[in-house]
Design brief:
It contains 5 helices and 2 strands. It is mostly helical. It has a single domain, classed as Winged helix-like DNA-binding domain superfamily/Winged helix DNA-binding domain (Arc Repressor Mutant, subunit A, Orthogonal Bundle). About 5% of the residues have low confidence.
């Protein structure tokens, strides 16, 4: 299985109303967190005008380890889109743009 597909398959398992971090996803599948970010950013490049609100991979559920959004630095994703999508799922952010990782972090169930 290709590296990015491994990222996508795991991110698809994050339920609505939960989040993960690039580092957490990377640790689960043995990848550098930057590779996770590259994989998710690739989705933006592959979509070419398709609606962001209906992704097949819930990319918005992966944020940085500080509990903040990193996509605002990217020109291919509309400003604050990730935050708005997460807020629509019930994720709360404080005035500084941070969310409570302890409250919303996804804990993958093991067999």
């Amino acid at each position: 299985m290709k590296t990015f597909d491994r990222v996508y398959n795991l991110v698809k398992k994050i339920p609505k109303g939960k989040i993960s971090t690039y580092g957490q996803i990377g640790q689960m599948i043995g990848l550098n967190p930057r590779v996770v970010g590259w994989a998710l950013n690739r989705l933006a490049k592959d979509r070419k005008g398709l609606p962001w609100q209906a992704p097949t991979v819930p990319w918005q559920r992966v944020i940085n380890s500080k509990g903040t959004i990193s996509t605002n630095k990217l020109s291919n994703i509309p400003l604050d889109l990730q935050k708005r999508l997460l807020e629509n799922e019930g994720i709360k952010f404080d005035k500084a743009g941070r969310t409570d990782l302890k409250k919303y972090i996804w804990k993958k169930k093991t067999k």
